[in-house]
Amino acid sequence: MKEKTKQLITADKEYVWHPFTQMKDWLSGEPIVIESGEGFYLIDTEGRRYIDGVGSLWCNVHGHHVPQIDSAIREQLDRIAHSTLLGLAQSRSVELAERIIRIAPNGLTKVFYSDSGATAVEIALKMAYQFWHNQGKKTRTQFIALRNSYHGDTIGSVSVGGMELFHGIFHSLLFETCFVPAPYPYRFDGSIDQCRQFSLDQIEQLLQERSHEMAAVVVEPLVQGAAGMIVHPSGFLKGVRELTKKYDTLLIVDEVATGFGRTGRMFACEHENVTPDLLCLAKGITGGCLPLAATLATQQIYEAFLGEVADFKTFYHGHTYTGNALGCAAAIASLDLFEQNRLLETLPDKIALIRDTLEKIARLDHIGDVRQCGMMAGIEIVKNKKSKESFLYEMTLGAKLCALMRCRGAMMRPLSDVIVLMPPLAIDRMTLQILLDIVIDTLIDDLPRLVRNA
Ligand SMILES: *Cc1c(COP(=O)(O)O)cnc(C)c1O
């Protein structure tokens, strides 16, 4: 190992606290230090190259070190890096807002900027809450969300998230949310139609009994990412939209993971012809190179906040870096690349390639389920293929498999025992094939051995 790498690892262990990481494990390991990126590859300080199999945690769209995005950031840097949106407008943020509204589901007319997925959701929750408050409907304070959903790590977004682990620890800090079972066909005894209907019925029952208490229903559209790539039966999102209309409550759709092409369309909502009242965007918005987020609202929501200052209808929320000019410049360049490269048109071919590989993987021992929604996929490892019994949490098979895939040249990160595939959307067919070969070879060669030694 190079002296420089050793020094960096020592300093990392001395000074950096990593997210979602048991640092005791980290300190006993030997981390990879990334130094640069080139196209669909990450390159570490030792010069080793890895295909970015999870798109740098689900946000990378066009690859790394993309000349058009980099030069858009440089050009913006020659003008200004940042100025506030509190009391001022900024040219790039105006331009981007117009671009986003042009491609967003019909009926969304306003863009509220922030800087991460969690803040985009936080803002949507507060907007929904205050939307009713401003109209004197002060009992509408609660949210309905799906079990196992993930909306980010701030207290508000954790409150509507359904991950037991976080709820246990932070329980007394969270506001109360009504959780309904997600439509998860793999864990449901019955047909897909029954599965969808069961979840919709649960939502309807809550709305029937308590619609006057409900501010909004919050969902990840089509697929619950962090829960393990749980793909919903088609028609579920549309069903939720119909119910929220029927019972006059709001729909918040969290497209932080699914937005910007990930499902094969620009936004997942398009698959079901749905316009939510509030739409949350982040991860892929800048192509995956700078932190930026947006919460989109309908005209109806926006107008409920209009009035005299003394009416106290103003939306009192903002972040220092709201609408950052460098981030907006990168986002505009990313949207340009979607058009220039006709990126969405290149996806069906790659989506089919992933589907064919998953079919092969599904037949292997200890593969419980394979799930895919466009360019996002999950491979679930189980102890028993028939009973679907999981391995114990402590076994960390997913992490062990991903470590082996790293040795073979693919940078992977699992969700518990689900292997996640989220390559940059623009990945070329050949590199995608190499990535898929690494995944399938590791599952064939190493999974049986890992299970035997377990
Ligand atoms: C990643 C994610 C978030 C949180 O985004 P951050 O930028 O990490 O705060 C929220 N919702 C969904 C659906 C996500 O996948």
Secondary structure layout plus pairing:
Blueprint: H1 3-15, H2 23-28, E1 34-38, E2 41-44, E3 49-52, H3 55-58, H4 67-77, H5 91-103, E4 108-114, H6 117-134, E5 142-146, H7 155-159, H8 164-170, E6 177-180, H9 192-210, E7 214-219, E8 223-224, E9 230-231, H10 236-246, E10 250-254, E11 278-281, E12 293-298, H11 299-303, H12 325-340, H13 343-362, E13 367-373, E14 376-381, H14 397-407, E15 410-411, E16 418-421, H15 429-445, H16 447-453
Parallel strand pairs: 3-15, 5-6, 5-7, 7-10, 10-11
Antiparallel strand pairs: 1-2, 2-3, 4-12, 8-9, 11-12, 13-14, 14-16
Bound molecules: pyridoxal-5'-phosphate.
Pyridoxal-5'-phosphate is lined by residues 116-118, 121, 150-152, 220, 225-226, 254, 256-257, 282-283.
Describe the structure.
The chain is α/β, with parallel strands linked by helices and 454 residues long. Helices cover 40% and strands 16% of the residues. The chain contains 16 helices and 16 strands. The strands form 4 sheets. The chain has a 7-stranded mixed beta sheet with strand order 4-12-11-10-7-5-6, with helices on both faces. A 4-stranded mixed beta sheet has the order 1-2-3-15. A 3-stranded antiparallel beta sheet has the order 13-14-16. Strand 1 (34-38) and strand 2 (41-44) form a beta hairpin. It starts with a helix and ends with a helix. 45% of the residues are buried. The site of pyridoxal-5'-phosphate (PLP) has 15 residues, from helix 6. The site of pyridoxal-5'-phosphate has 15 residues, from helix 6.
